[in-house]
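# nightly structure sweep
# worker-07 picked up a monomer target from the shared queue
# config: single-sequence mode, recycle default, output format = structure tokens
# input follows
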Amino acid sequence: MVSPRPARRPCLIFYDGLGAAHDGPKPQITAVGHSYGSLMTGLALQQPGPHPVTDLVVYGSPGLDTGYAPSENALDKLHLAPHHAFEMTAHGDPVANLNGFGLSPGYTPGFIDMDTGVTTTPDGVPREGATGHAEYARTGDNGNLRTSGYNTAVVVAGLPDKVVHGNPAWQTAGADIVNWLAHR
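# output follows
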């Protein structure tokens, strides 16, 4: 497996460039990472010094390398304020339940859990759900963003009050295990 560690510095330079290109008050910059990309983003945000990233959205994440102790403050390590770290763990996503690089964000205190299931979002649009590891960013069969895509978009747009909240990964994984056992 290729290590994401060499990519952390270029990723942070990219975010710093976004911040430097902005003239005026501190911009709202949201880092978004899926799967191994979420790990690389987590490693970048843990680099010393100030960075312009104000919000983080991760989905299908195997962990951000912030440690395994729930008592460790992952948000401090990521240089993020409370209520500015968001995660999604879809049903049937084994990667998001690996906890292979520290606790996965769905198991990490301080992260806001966003829904990935079928729902009608606050804008009145029916949304399809995402399941497994690959559907988060895909549009639904109806051509609309899935619930996960909607949630990512409202955070990026600076509208976190419009997020559709979901269950933490330990509840999602628990339901998946019960469902799997019931159908064996």
